[in-house]
Design brief:
9 helices; globular; alpha/beta; about 325 residues
Length: about 325
């Protein structure tokens, strides 16, 4: 028997001017006579890790499931996970001792490090390597981005933020070493360009983007050539993935257009960031989905707000900040 099937490399990109678009896992990427589950890049064997930080606590009565031994019933907060309930495990009764004495800075700092933050208001801060970065050294070695750090707060604060602790502890979830925090990005356009942009600086990529309606315009020719070699099932997967990319890009463009129509600049919300917190958060989550689908990264951290945030949430009736 002669086997003629040639596997498409998992690291296949659609390339164009200023664009490098990763693809989702396709049947064409699986070597001949190899079961999908046995390939290193198969979804079953891939290990992905994501952390979402929700500051200032929560209503545990709405978070904790009513039953201790099984998830037959989810709590109100966790109810959106019902379609994937069989894949969910809820851990309770945990204690993070180095978060005490319970300041905002120590809570944020110890979340992924389990370390005690050095109390200082200067640049001699010291914490510990966070678990996401320990994981990234292993499962992030073969991806375009070893890890991806995201947040919802666009402006970092500086100096002393909380009871003698430097603001760096609140600004950053991820630390690659005890003295090296990794800044997070909250601007959807910059995240989009990080995932799908190629050579050149940010200014070069934006100039290229302005010349076309969509990033996908730059890869039209390569896409057409690739589609001719794929099975119908793979073509559907590629089409669905590219439509998701285009949907995210379209929403970023809509936010940019809306900001352009506003004559008064919002310093807390630069151009391209949706006015609604929910829309901004949904966009950031969808960018994470694309990053995982394209295997651009396997490790993500996402900070929903800083501990001392003055953010309001009028869409759910919270018009006053937690820290007035």
């Amino acid at each position: 028997m002669i086997i003629t099937k040639k596997a498409l490399p998992r690291r296949t990109f659609l390339r164009g001017a200023g664009t490098a678009l990763a693809l989702p896992l396709l049947d064409a990427m699986i070597p001949a006579l190899s079961a999908q589950g046995q390939t290193p890049a198969s979804p079953a064997r891939l290990r992905r890790l994501g952390f979402v930080y929700m500051p200032m606590g929560c209503d545990v009565t709405r978070w904790t499931p009513p039953l201790e031994d099984k998830l037959d019933e989810l709590s109100p907060t966790l109810s959106p996970l019902a379609p994937v309930r069989e894949h969910v495990a809820v851990l309770t009764n945990l204690e993070l001792r180095n978060a005490y004495p319970g300041t905002h800075a120590t809570s944020n700092a110890s979340f992924l490090s389990a370390a005690k933050a050095k109390r200082t208001e200067s640049t001699d801060y010291y914490l510990g390597t966070t678990v996401d970065q320990i994981a990234a050294r292993q499962i992030g070695r073969d991806t375009q981005l070893p890890s991806l750090e995201l947040s919802m707060d666009l402006l970092s604060v500086v100096g002393q933020c909380d009871n003698g602790y430097a603001c760096v502890y609140q600004n950053n979830l991820s630390w690659s070493s005890p003295t090296t925090p990794l800044p997070a990005e909250a601007h959807p356009r910059i995240v989009f360009e990080t995932l799908f942009g190629e050579e050149g600086g940010t200014a070069d990529r934006r100039t290229s983007l302005k010349k076309r309606a969509s990033l996908l315009d730059a890869v039209t020719d390569e896409l057409a050539r690739l589609q001719k070699t794929l099975s119908p099932a793979d073509r559907r997967r590629v089409d669905q993935y590219l439509e998701a990319v285009r949907d995210v890009e379209r929403r970023i463009q809509q936010a940019e257009a809306a900001a352009g129509e506003n004559p008064l600049p919002d310093l807390d919300r630069p151009v391209g960031v949706p006015a609604s917190y929910a829309d901004h958060a949904r966009l950031m989550f969808d960018l994470q989905v694309l990053a995982l689908q394209g295997d651009i990264t396997r490790v993500i951290t996402f900070q929903l707000a800083r501990e001392t945030s003055n953010r309001t949430y009028p869409e759910i009736g919270v018009a006053e900040p937690h820290h007035p």
